Amino acid sequence: MKYLFLGMVGFLGILSLLAYAMIPSPRDQDKVPLVWVSDHNPQREPQIERFNRLHPQCSLRLDPNNAGVTKIIVQSCANVGPDIIDVYGVQQLQTYVEAGILLDVTEIAREMGFDPSMTYPKAGEGLQIEGRQYSYPCNVNVDIIFYNKNIFDRMEVPYPPRICTWDEMVHVAEQVTLRSEGSKLPECFGLANVHWQSLLRQNGGKIFSEDGTRCVVDSAEAVEAIQFYRDLLHRYNVTPTLLQRTAMAGEGGWGQGWLNWFGAQRLAMIQVGKWGLITFRMYIREQRRAKERWERENPGAVYPGPEPLRLGACHVPHFRDKPRCVILDSRSAAVNRLSPHAMEAVRFLAYLTTQEYCETINEGADALPGNPRFGTVEAMHNPAFPEEDIMNELTIEATQWGVVKQVSPFIDASTALRLIETQIQRIEADPKLDVAAAMRLAARDVNEQIQKNVDREPHLKERYKRVVAGRGRDH
């Protein structure tokens, strides 16, 4: 009993010491506390450390466990939200702005040097709603195609060209899709992670009309693009269907998710931004160590495992006779306007343009830094992974073809996407479903919701009337 008591005393003593260590020092209590909701990327630590060093009057810390748009909105409205919020793309930005929790930084951004002119032109569009700026990029992303040189070499298939059409890409993907007799799953799929929104825009389709009053995913261009999307799954069988993805997740050796499947060398090609290198570097290091360890233990023997991942890259294909196009997106930072430290938090947005911050993006391969001045091939070069230079070059080049995802003032983007993706999931699951009919249903559902919003909200009704009247005058 005595020892139990002493043990409890000792345990409580340790807890007391830990609690004491967590109490802010008097020095920290004199600083402005700032909380940044973001993911737990390894680069967050140096990003925060450099900000605090440049702004000694502030004490920035990361909150990686508080993500979720609804959760952040509720907390902010209750005055317990974060000071700085990561925003994933213009569609999510719209949701936050309509909730009324983001600080309009349009004027102050010009004064402090982080206005849209300080990033890539198309990225600048994605920082604004109704012409007003609310955020600045933490990083900027455009997709490219990564391919596994080992698979191409083993199957004696030439690497895909730097620029090609979708017809050419399908031909390549069919050659590197390795089917196994007696197995429901190919040993290796040729291509993965192609997104329907990307194909739709590449083929000249749009989600909304230019004035935002109508959903137009039932246009001929949109239907043709979605039909091709389904063909990748069911006609050409080069990318996994939903049922196959479920089976892959439960089968040994596949791991979880597109990046891990590619890293484990079960996919020949994948469409993803250069931020995928964060995961691919991990696989390359692990596979190199495994080979080195085996060769040390088995001198002179031939290594039986797959060679460590070797990367190549090319541009995302384009449709024949259509201009090159790729969706440009960003993870941007915005300021909670309800925060008591909103003006101090604005300093963080200005910090995102600096060399100190941009270097951390380059070091971590987390897409492109928001400031193009520091997003050069030379600045992003990594001696440990020299093959990445081509990925950096392609990503920079692709920004000139970038387009920003669409939003409408008459419907929240997340609601519109949910309605459209209900039909996309039906198309993915059923190879015989009428694609045109499904997309008409998607457009109908979104347009019905737009009309409900307009009927319910007087300010939307007035705006809708003005837009429709103006459209009539233009015609």
Essential attributes:
alpha/beta, D-Maltodextrin-Binding Protein, domain 2, two-stranded antiparallel ribbon, 10 strands, disordered N terminus
* Number of helical stretches of at least 4 residues: 21
The overall average pLDDT, rounded, is: 91
CATH class of the largest domain: Alpha Beta
Write out the CATH superfamily name of the largest domain. Answer: Periplasmic binding protein-like II
Proportion of beta-strand residues: 5-15%
Report the strand count: 10
Low-pLDDT windows of residues: 1-23
CATH architecture of the largest domain: 3-Layer(aba) Sandwich
Describe the structure in your own words.
It is a single chain. The protein is of the alpha/beta class and 475 residues long. It folds into three domains: 23-139 and 330-384, D-Maltodextrin-Binding Protein, domain 2, CATH 3.40.190.10; 143-326, D-Maltodextrin-Binding Protein, domain 2 (3-Layer(aba) Sandwich), CATH 3.40.190; 413-474, no CATH class. Helix content is 49%, strand content 12%. α10 (196-202) packs across α11 (220-234) and α20 (435-456) packs across α21.
Topology overview:
Layout: H1 2-22, H2 26-29, E1 32-37, H3 44-54, E2 58-63, H4 69-77, E3 84-88, H5 89-99, H6 106-112, H7 121-125, E4 128-129, E5 132-133, E6 135-148, H8 149-154, H9 166-175, H10 196-202, H11 220-234, H12 242-250, H13 258-263, E7 269-273, H14 277-297, E8 311-314, E9 326-335, H15 342-351, H16 355-364, H17 377-380, H18 389-398, E10 402-403, H19 413-429, H20 435-456, H21 458-474
Parallel strand pairs: 1-2, 1-3, 9-10
Antiparallel strand pairs: 3-9, 4-5, 6-7, 6-8, 6-9
Helix pairs in contact: 10-11, 19-20, 20-21
